Amino acid sequence: MRKNMPALSRKVLLVKPSDNYFFPIGYAYVATALKSAGIEFDYIDLHLHPTFDLEAHLRTHDYLAVCVGGLLWSLPHFKEIFATAKRVNPRLACILGGNIVVDFSSQILFEYLDIDYLVIGEGEITATLLLQHIDVHGISPTSLEGVAYRTPQAPGSHVRNARRPFLDLTSRNWMPTWDFVEVDRYSYSQKLQKRFFPVLTGRGCTGRCAFCSPTNGRYRGRPVEHVLAELEYLISHYDFDYFYFINEVFFQTEEQIIAFCRGYSRLKGRKPWMCPQRMDTPLSVLAFMKEAGCFTVTVGLESGSDAILKKMKKNITTDQARAYIAALKEQEIQVEASFIFGNFEETPEDMAKTVDLMLDLDAFGPMVLCITYPGTLNYQRARRLGLVRDDLQYILDPHDAYNPSYLRQMEDHYSGKRRYLNITAMDDDLLFATVVREMRRLYSQGYCYRQVTASTQDGIVYQLRGTCPICRGIVEKKASIDDPSAFQEHLCPECGEPHVHFPARIIPVLRQAQEAALVELESAGSIAVVGTADQVRAFLKLGVEGFPYDKVAGFLRSADSDPLHEGSWIGNLRQLSPEEVAHSADTLVALGAAAGDALSNLISRGGAGFRALGALHEAGRLGVRSVFPYGRLGVECCLESLAGAHVLVACCARQEPVRELLRSLRARGCTVSVLILQDSPSLIEVEDLVNGSTITCPGSLFNAQTLPEAALTSDADCAVVPFIKELTGYGNVLACLAACGIPVAYAWHVNNSQVPDEERRRLVSMPYPPSMPLVPRPS
């Protein structure tokens, strides 16, 4: 909480809601006006301090008013703040401002919230005059422009005065005050891993897009010299890396942009900067912007369909977008091209055109599902179509309206947490399926590293090297063929882009395995995929080229530890019960493990449903495939191929992995014998799972020379060697197995991600017996 100076009889409290994660620039501008009028205020940021006890604070402070502002989706939080204020002091003036007051019904706001006043439009002048009026008169401000107020004489009713004219941005240099804000906690960009400072070069917008409702109406620019003065002040008073101009329009005219660039180039200590730009801006300004330090321009590409752009009222064409983005690239200015799916009357063909355009332009930027915001043309369209029947309930639906993850928005929709308002020409299922398909096409083709090379010494661990498609930086990464996460999206270490990835198909053995799996899946009828939540999301986002996604009925969790409940969704895929899989699917596809291991893991979870899946597989009615040849458990034995065999297990790992292996073998009808150490405590722990013989090696080390004579004639068909972290002494284990006359030994990895590369190489190169290598996988 920060404090300032006296003027009114009591202080004012500004409160930022907990859900508002934006830089509090609106509060900073109001703070400038309050300071100019000598009004003392306190500020509480509930986003940064969600556990702050507002009620206890209000009981120990005597405020004139509580002032809150923000967007529509904060309405439940506004209600909680104002209810707390009135509970402490029913006479405490409660004032609401911000975008919500412009775009939503005043009547509903007064009925739903414990508020006394609305500040309509810009708050600098109106809020200051209102606070002075309350302090002096304490009665209804009947003649104050830009205010709506509750009428005590008629409960539930209110009066809305004439709106105040827009703030004159030229008569004085309106600059935000930042000394009361914890700036460092807002200024860090996770993507760029640098600190930025937000600046407004003006207010409002020149456009009238159907999906947007600018709080401040038509565009009004600040004088260039005012903006330069603010930048100079920020450079001298704060420590940060770059400026981010955050208003909808940078400057309105070519002359203003050039004047800014020339003036900024003369500032001492100037920072790099990024800005928004409409694509109808003259191309001639781009060279000036580059020279003045502009490193990124954000543009609203919005759609690759001219028909949709027209319905958006965007007033640009795809040809303009092509020319503008090409010109930015020619100047070596990075482009962030955002676009929207779920537009009014949009079709699958329109969405495909958008991804086609992004790929053609080699453009990158965020996609958002269209939010039908009150006050917009799209909202009016939705109301006319009967899609919105209750304005208040629409806003109160619990949700994160600006969730950047389209998969999570789908999960919220299907789970009933938040219904997505669909204004397209498609039903919900087709819309979401199209979004997933087109975004997978964009991510898999557009966001993969370019000019990728892969080198290896052992065929297991590869050194990958490629060029980031966004920043063109060279990135190197070590990847193992038994670790699918190595090929999932990650942060580029150069530019911070979170969706880049190395394609798994660059590795020949992975490409061959995927191609073979796809051939096998051609005959599949209905598919259930098996994996963790992260693996399923990666499957939907990056996918496997050529995979029959239209056959996928849902997913099965690969582990009970996954934080998902029955009936949950990942994107547009529903979690299936084993009974549903048994009834409707004929194929299981493992996303992060070898096929046999995936099935054994499911069966080992217990329950009739999972056992039924094993029975269906044994009966030939449920196929099991893997799109990843080894999986996260490493270069491992496919236990399915050992069904019914006599298997000797070397108990040379920790107790639980050994028991897991024994359970899996017993579930496949195997006769299980064990080779253990006399001094090992594992004997007691595995007795209940051994239905064959127990070969005990004296002492605490495996030694073929000390094996009992009876062990030298074992009739086991094969041996399985488990390990966890290291292979110390495995040569001795193999010698013991060979001495027992075991014809072949398989490696079974419990957690190969923890195995050092040199140890892994040793395992696959160990001779067994001397004339043949240890077999890493049954043929």
From TrEMBL:
MF (Gene Ontology): 4 iron, 4 sulfur cluster binding; catalytic activity; cobalamin binding; metal ion binding
Location of the B12-binding domain: 9-141
Keywords linked to the UniProt accession: Iron, Iron-sulfur, Metal-binding, Plasmid, S-adenosyl-L-methionine
CDD domains per UniProt: Radical_SAM (cd01335)
Cofactor needs: [4Fe-4S] cluster
SUPFAM superfamilies: Radical SAM enzymes (SSF102114)
The protein, known as: Uncharacterized protein
Originating organism: Solidesulfovibrio carbinolicus
